[in-house]
Amino acid sequence: MTNTKFVTPIDDRYFEDYVPRAVYECGCIGVEEAEIIAFGQRFDPQPFHTDREAARQSPFGGLIASGWHTASLMMRLFVEHYLSRVASLGSPGVDELRWLKPVRPGDMLSLRVTVLEAKPSRSKPDRGLVRSYIEVLNQHSEVVMTMKALNFLQRRGT
Amino acid sequence: MTNTKFVTPIDDRYFEDYVPRAVYECGCIGVEEAEIIAFGQRFDPQPFHTDREAARQSPFGGLIASGWHTASLMMRLFVEHYLSRVASLGSPGVDELRWLKPVRPGDMLSLRVTVLEAKPSRSKPDRGLVRSYIEVLNQHSEVVMTMKALNFLQRRGT
Taking the model in full, what pTM does it have? Predict the structure, then answer.
């Protein structure tokens, strides 16, 4: 697969602009310790997300972000750089979400997205379903999370 | 499948206490409009998560929670009522995450979890992998989200 630059600005991108096998590398977001702890306290209160000292003594050797925090940071990049805000009609779900490596305070995450499939809806002619493969990378180019996303996108001119 | 009460308190629950086909119904958490908007602004800045007026004019007819916010609220219930904090060794990922119905301000979410499979690790004798089917329900007993979770859990006495 080849690396492809965006050909259509995200605010003018519709279903037709998602071409299978196109690959996008985009975005950069920092992981802050305070947010790891706050997210953990509210949504995932396990000691290795919320307590620096307990985390140090855990198998992870230090604080790590909740997998849902990592997924949420991925979504921020996905919305800002890939998912068209003018055409997004929501998502039925995701498949094969995998957390491969710990995400730690100070990490910088970026996104690599590959268009897997783009299929017009049979029942609703105004939209299509795009299936994408998402990889989240850290500053060492290690893949820390992967998943397959499904997104409904509006067709151009409907 | 029959409905089963917890037989082991969550703070003394290890891999061996997760018995396939056991069903747990547990927890209750409220969905607040302010948190929907704050979560959306940080992690999923699409208008139907962040802007009351734009959301009203969207296909959803009003503000809805980001799917990642719903998943994170699910995790809070999962950690507090199902996942053993003494034995949890993290998760390699989830499968077939599906958002079935919109989650709106004022909704009350609860959890139904079914143990699908519990398999001792072949390479690491101190742990096992538990596969669970998770349903998130709203106050009308409608299933709003489902997924299959994988969790590593410590074996008793290791």
Answer: 0.93
Q: Summarize the confidence of residues B18-43 as an average pLDDT.
A: 96
Name, in order, each residue with C-beta under 8 angstroms of A69's C-beta and a sequence gap of 6 or more. Answer: A35, A36, A39, A40, A43, A44, A49, A103, B72
Residue of B nearest to A85 (CA): B46
Angle at CA B134, nearest 5°, toward A91 and B111? 105
User: Which two three-digit tokens encode residue B45?
Assistant: 């800045």
Dmax (CA) for chain A in angstroms is: 57
Q: What mean pLDDT comes out for the span A16-22? A: 94
CATH number of the domain located at residue range(s) A10-31+65-154 in this protein:
3.10.129.10
B110, B27 in Cβ contact below 8 A?
A: yes
The average pLDDT across B74-80 equals: 95
CB contact under 8 A, B72 and A67: no
To the question of domain B10-154 being in CATH 3.20.20.70, the answer is no
B47, A85: Cβ pair inside 8 Å? yes
Could you tell me the two tokens for A5? 């630059």
Residue B58: closest CA among chain A residues belongs to which residue? A89
**Domain ranges for chain B:** 10-154
| CA distance linking residue A17 with residue B37, whole number of Å | 29
A38-86 per-position pLDDT tens digit: 999 999 999 999 999 999 998 899 999 999 999 999 999 999 999 987 8
Closest residue in B to A145 (Cα) is B93
User: Where would I find the H helices in A13-113?
Assistant: 33-43, 47-50, 52-56, 67-81
| Mean pLDDT (whole number) for A144-154 | 97
Instruction: Collect all residues of chain B within an 8 Å Cβ-Cβ radius of residue A89.
Output: 59
Reduced to 3 states, what is the DSSP secondary structure of residue B46?
Answer: coil
The pLDDT value recorded for residue B9 is 76
B96 chain-A contacts, CB cut-off 8 A: 93, 95
CB contact under 8 A, B39 and A72: yes
Question: How sure is the predictor about B7, in pLDDT bands with cuts at 50, 70 and 90?
Answer: low
